[in-house]
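Predict structure. Chain length: 263.
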Amino acid sequence: MNRFSALVKREVKTSQKDLFTYGLVIVLLLFVSETLRSVYARYAGVSFPAESYNEMFPSFLLLGGFIMSSLIFSEDMFGKDTQHDWLMLPATNLEKFLSKALLMIVAYPIVLIVLFFLTSVVTEPIQLIIFGNPMAMFNPFRNGNFGFLLAQYWVWTSVFLLGGTYFRKAHFIKTVLAIGIISLVLGALGLLFARIVFAIRFGSSLQVFDAMFYLSPVNLNRALSPLKVFSVIGQIFYYVVLPIFCLVTAYFRVEEVQATDAV
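Prediction complete.
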């Protein structure tokens, strides 16, 4: 446990300058956004708009988290000057992998929530005193989709962690391109599957989109009812199987690189 804690501290320490800059950018953007909204509302004579924290949080959670996840392995796994040092660390490959993966999957959302909340604690009293803007602290549970947002983050962070370990350069861009290609292939397979199902239910002479156009909502729901079981299976695959598969594959990719490139 002490060894794993030392690995986590190493990860934070080696990236503390970049993390500080990233956090400062978030704080400044939030403060400037709230200030500009308050200035406009005050001098335009309109009501004060809703706070911007909940609007900006998903972007920093998802986009920021995905970019960081795709880059977190780059230096230690593929850097010519650093990969040997990472290899020689007195820790197992699993510990090395988890020290990075857990930082992105668990620590990053928690730290981001705390940062947004503390920024609102500082910003809102200033806006109230100067512009009379009603105080509205950051509350991630306000919109009711926080659980869904975290679930999406869990799934796609695992994908970008796999991309970060698999690709040697341009990790984020190549991962996005790979996701696009795979999505097109799966979409084509989905259309083919739907065509087969509708052909079985309505005959091969009726096209899929024609059937959906002419059917009433009741009949359409009845026709699609056999697919509900596939929907449940798809959700299990999406939220459980896919992220676990990506993380396990990423770990074995770390094993491979540690056994070959860094020797």
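Summary: Residues 93-131 form the longest helix (39 residues).
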